[in-house]
């Protein structure tokens, strides 16, 4: 994982070997606490484990109890979860992820939050979208998880968009591949909240334009496409999207067709959006992230204007 981002007060860097979980800071039920032992967290040492991949990345100290309050299929391979997090000390920046602790599962998951911080403020809810794999946390989400299941979450990550009212106005270009849409959807939804706030209060952070480039194998694997198009239609002068499919075999429906391009996202498409006022956020398969990061640098985009997430 890498990112041109700022340090966040209240977060810490921790190694897998130095994780401490103290009952006083967890806000958890006793039954949940029994399952969140150091032994269960440390048990698996495979290279693919989230805790090992993110050992040097900033995360908060607080682990908060959460309860599953909703679930849905977003695609043939992706299931979304809504989690109720009552702990008032739990907060996150748009684009961050959570360590996902499951009672009885020895491996800790790592899933990006795809909802906006505003939803948490208003309803104490966060949303995750988990792709089916044979990794134990993902298997649990797809095969075992039911409403009212209790889990625990801890926020981490250096990939986020969190402008302050006095910050300079920026355009955003969001480049997503597959389930890499998750943190970028959180940023897109946060940008929409900022636009609504600006329209209602006539003040606050003045955001520029937002362009989403999103690639998947086919339209059934384009997650949250209705949510994305709703935002495009709500803010037609501010938000735009280009949806790419690389292995489409069926006819594309009429509603989606104006936004669909068959083939990969190209360097030229991205290059056309380069400006001094533009920030680039990239999240997708590592080769895709590497390619666009390098191309942007080659086109003289400052490194501090390029933020990417790469950890699965």
Plain-language structure description:
This protein is of the alpha/beta class. It folds into 2 domains: 100 residues, Elongation Factor Tu (Ef-tu), domain 3 (Beta Barrel), CATH 2.40.30.10; 141 residues, Rossmann fold (3-Layer(aba) Sandwich), CATH 3.40.50.80. It is 25% helix and 27% strand. The longest helix has 21 residues. The termini are close together. The N terminus is likely disordered.
What's this, in brief?
Keywords: NAD, Oxidoreductase. This protein has helices at residues 30-35, 38-42, 50-53, 117-123, 136-143, 181-201, 225-234, 267-271, 286-298, and strands at 2-3, 11-13, 58-60, 64-75, 78-84, 97-101, 109-112, 125-131, 150-156, 171-177, 210-216, 239-245, 260-262, 278-283, 306-309. The protein is α/β, with parallel strands linked by helices.
How far apart are the first and last residues' alpha carbons, in Å? 9 Å
Number of H- or I-type helical stretches: 9
Poorly predicted regions are 1-26, 37-47
Q: Roughly how much helix do the residues carry, as a percent range?
A: 25-40%
Strand content: 25-35%
The pLDDT mean sits at 88
**What value does the Rg take, in angstroms?**
19 Å
CATH class of the largest domain: Alpha Beta
The backbone outline, from C-alpha atoms, is globular
Q: How many structural domains does the protein architecture include?
A: 2
What is the CATH H-level superfamily of the largest domain? Nucleotide-binding domain of ferredoxin-NADP reductase (FNR) module
Task: Label the structural class.
Answer: alpha/beta
- The CATH architecture name of the largest domain reads 3-Layer(aba) Sandwich
H/E topology pattern:
EEHHHEEEEEHEHEEHEHEEHEHE
